[in-house]
Structures are given as C-alpha cells and as structure tokens.
Amino acid sequence: MTDAYEQLIAHERETSAIAHVAGRLSWDQETMMPRGAAAQRGEEMAAMEAVLHARRSDARIGGWLAELEGGQGGDPVRAAVLRHVRRAYDRSVKVPARLAAEIARVTSVSQGVWAEARAKDDFAAFAPTLKRVLELKREEGAALADGGDVYDALIQDYEPGASAAQLSDMFGALRPALVELIGEMRAAPQPPAPAGEFPEAAQMALSRRVAEAFGYDMTRGRIDKAVHPFSSGSGNDVRITTRTNLRDPFNCLYSTIHEVGHASYEQAISQDYLFTPLGQGVSMGVHESQSRIYENQLGRSRAFTGWLFGRMRDTFGDFGIADADTFYRVVNRVHDGFIRTESDELQYNLHVLLRFDLERAMVTGDLSVDDLEDAWNRRFEADFGFAVDRPSNGVLQDVHWSVGLFGYFPTYSLGNVYAGCLHEALRRDLPDLDDRLAEGDLSAATGWLRENLQRHGGLYEPREVIERACGGPVDETALTTYLARKFRNMYPQI
Q: Which residues of 393-421 are buried (b: 16+ CB within 10 A; e: fewer)?
C-alpha cells in the first residue's frame, strides 16, 4: 500500500502542475490576451483558484501530516517538504474558499482597470477597484493573522519569517547611509543620458544576447514585452518580459537582466524538486537578491559595462558615448526620476520604503484609499525633493496593489540587502571575477550563485539559505559599504 508520504507528494505534484497552468494564464493576460477578454479571464482565474484552494485545504493533507511529522529520520529533503506543506495547509484552511476565489476574480479584473487608469492618468477611476481589493486582502489577512498583526500575516506569503517591525528596523538603519550618499552624488557632475533613438528590434535582439550571457536558457524560456516587466514560471518553463523605450535602451537591457536573475534562479533549482514544494524560489526577498545582484553588482559593474559598451556599439553604431569609462558612469548615473524600476541604484530603496510605509498604513487602516494619492505625493516630494507631475509617474506606476500584492514591496529592499551580502562573499571566493566580467563571461559568478543558493530551491528557510551562501549573518552594512565604495570611487573629486 502506498505510504502517506508518497500520497502527499502525488497530491502536491498535481496541485503544483495546476498552479503552473494558472500561472500561464496570468502570463498570457500580461502579454497576449485581447483587452476584451478581461472579465472572462477573471472568471477563469476564480475557477482555477477554487480548484487550487480545495486541493491545498484538502483534509487528507492534515491526516498525512499528522502521520508523518516528527518521524523524518534526519532526511532534510523530506523535512523541508513537510515544513512547506504544513505552512501552506495551515494558511489555506484559514481562508474561506469563497474569499480565495473572489480575490482571484477581483484582482484579475482589477489589473485591467489599473492599466486603463494609468494610461489616462486618472487615479479616481481606479480608486473604487483598489478599495475592493484592499477590503478583500484585509479580510484574508485577518483570517490568517488569527488575532495577530494583519500586515505581518500578509508578508508571510512573500517572505516567511519576516515581520514589519524587523523590516522597519533594517530599513531605518539603511536610510541614513543612502540619504548621505545621494546628497554627495547630486553634487557630482553626472553624464547626460544617450541621445537619439534606438530601434526596438535592435534593443530586443541585444537583450536576448545579454540574457544568454547571464545564463538564461532560451530552450526553457522566452522573452516577450509587457507594460511592467516580470518573470513567470519555474522548472522547465520560465518566461520573462521586458519593455522598450526608443530613447532609453538601458530600460530594456537592465529590465531584461533583472528578470533573468529571477528566471535563472528558477531554472537552476534541482530537477529532483520539480512539482514539489521545494521546486521554486524560497521567498521573494531571496528571489529579489538574484535579480538585483544580476542587474547591479554584476550588470552595472565597471568590468561588465566595458564589455556591454562594445556590444552597444556593434548594435547601434556611434550612439554618442565616447568611451567605456563614460559609458560606466552613464549606466550608473544618479538622476532624478519618478519611476521605481528606472531608478538609479542609490535612490531605488527610497522608492521601496515609500511604498512599504504607505501599504502598511492602508492595511492597518491608518490611510484610506481616498487619501492615498495625496499621501504618496507628499511623501515623494519629502524624500526626493521634487513634486510628482502625474499619477502614472506616482501612485499608479506599479501593478502590485491592483493584483493584491500587499506585503510584497518590502522584499525588494530586503533583496538588495541580501544581494549586498552575497556580492561580498562572491568577490571573496572569485578574486578574478572582474577579468571574467570584462570578457562578458558571467559563468563563474552565475555558477557560484547556482551552486551556493539557486539549486536549493525551498530546501532551506529564506535567511538560512543566504547565510549559508555568505558564510555569516545578514545585515545592511555589506550593501551600504558596496554602494559607498562604488560611487565615491566613480567620483573621487567630491
């Protein structure tokens, strides 16, 4: 007779396969779905979520866990599987099936409402829908919190084990160093952005070449365009999107590198874990550590940008940047801007901290949706020193709240902190890294990340997998040290 563990794994494999199909529906919605299909897709997503919720809260899971827990005989893989299943099951049984399906339906439709409001710069057109999304997510958070902090309960979907208080302490320690460096760099002579137009087809061709240089396996992936770049899938079907701007080729290139970091993580996870709870990235903070170290510490390094400068000239000819040193400063220029995903490396975390504080206040009830746009604009001007000019450059720029991702934003800055720690260890272990990067050879760096972190998938807890890879504890000092050294060396005259 099949034992309880085999039955549990069979059940989890089928559930995971269905979840992958649901993820493909989301990918299609962002890339190819006709606009008129939005309401129908909402019903389809609700139906898929109803099936998934029923499977995840199946009473048999509780029975299998009761039989299996505590008797793993030192098998770390089996113990990790049970840990993930227990966490998911306990959360699923707390959320009513009706609520899970309604969240899926409303957020699917809300995404289209947000996109239209963003295109028209009309926050008022989106506000009623956002109120409904927030209402549903508060209800979900209250069910999950079981009397505890609702926002902390929502964070667990993205960063298990984290809390708003812990994240606030970390970000509070990070902010002063960032503000000091930003002030210094604003006094430095920043190079101008490249002039002229860069054909879309050429941008996409170069982005594919760069993606492959970073190890993205195109036989198990693809690159498409979307309003908001993202990565989707795991295992042997991991897709990414990017976007193009005729006057800003770096938007396309670095969006691609960022999403390749996410996708490469998923592609590198051990095939033994496919369709199991270990077969995907362990948290969004760890995920973001991969996208950010690919994009910034590797992709914006002096060594790699020297190689990329040559590829840019091959692709676009003379594009107005004279040499590799100037190109390096252009890629890393500290510039005023409204958009988080287009922000320079120094100011990026200020964008994230703004969102973290605002969404936390919305979930706790300290900030209403009706007051959100004004609160955003006031906070932005206080942090960045200039005013938001229109909603698409402010409160409407990100897709996250429209799809109910409350608790997700802080993982971006947490991922930056993790990336700082990983980069410090990477440099320690690969003293010839810059020589390799200068040749466009990312294999040593990505191989180190694959071996020390990516292949493990969900085997370890989020902070544990970072600490194992780095060989020490996590804090923000590695990131701030890296940023200070990089930017002060770039402008030694200030």
A: ebbbbbbbbbbbbbbbbbbbbbbbbbbbb
Within 341-442, residue ranges assigned H as helices are 348-364, 372-384, 410-429, 433-438
Q: Cβ of 359: how many Cβ atoms within 10 Å?
A: 24
CB-CB contact of 232 with 238 (8 Å): yes
Annotated binding-site residues read 258, 262, 288
pLDDT, average across residues 351-363: 98
Could you tell me the CA-to-CA distances from 274 to 51, 137, 234 in Å, in that order? 21, 30, 8
Mean pLDDT (whole number) for 48-63: 95
H/E stretch holding 159 = none
Residue 59 in tokens: 């009473």
**Contact of 292 with 426, CB cutoff 8 Å:** no
Domains plus CATH for the chain?
A: 4-148 (no CATH), 164-490 (1.10.1370.30)
Encoded tokens for 214:
């970073």
Token pair recorded at residue 158: 């993205």
Orientation angle between helical segments 200-213 and 249-268, nearest 10 degrees: 30
- Write out the two tokens for 152: 């902390």
Is residue 259 annotated as part of the catalytic site, yes or no?
Answer: yes
Q: Do the strands 237-242 and 223-225 form a parallel or antiparallel pair, or are they unpaired?
A: parallel
Give the confidence band of 1 by pLDDT, cuts at 50, 70, 90. Answer: very low
Tokens 């101008």 belong to residue = 192
pLDDT of residue 2: 64
pLDDT of 72 higher than 70: no
Instruction: Please report which confidence band the pLDDT of residue 339 belongs to, taking 50, 70 and 90 as the band edges.
Output: very high
- 416 contacts: CB under 8 Å, gap ≥ 6: 288, 289, 292, 348, 349, 479
- The overall pTM is greater than 0.90: yes
For residues 411 and 396, give the distance between their C-alpha atoms in angstroms, rounded to a whole number: 20
Question: What amino acid occupies position 89?
Answer: Y
Rg (C-alpha) for the chain, rounded Å, is: 22
Residue 105 banded pLDDT, cuts 50, 70, 90: very high
Return all residues near 149 (Cβ < 8 A) that are at least 6 apart.
Answer: 163, 164
**The one-letter amino acid at 369:** V
Q: Which residue has the tokens 């510490």?
A: 297
Higher pLDDT, 400 or 70: 400
- Distances 262 to 216, 232, 266, 444 between C-alpha atoms, Å: 10, 9, 7, 18
Average pLDDT value for residue range 68-80: 85
Residues 6+ apart with CB under 8 A from 157: 91, 407
**Which residues make up each annotated binding site for Zn(2+)?**
258, 262, 288
Q: Which of 140, 259, 359, 373 is an active site residue?
A: 259
Q: Which of 173, 162, 90, 73 is closest to 464 using CA atoms?
A: 162
Q: What is the mean pLDDT of residues 191-210?
A: 94
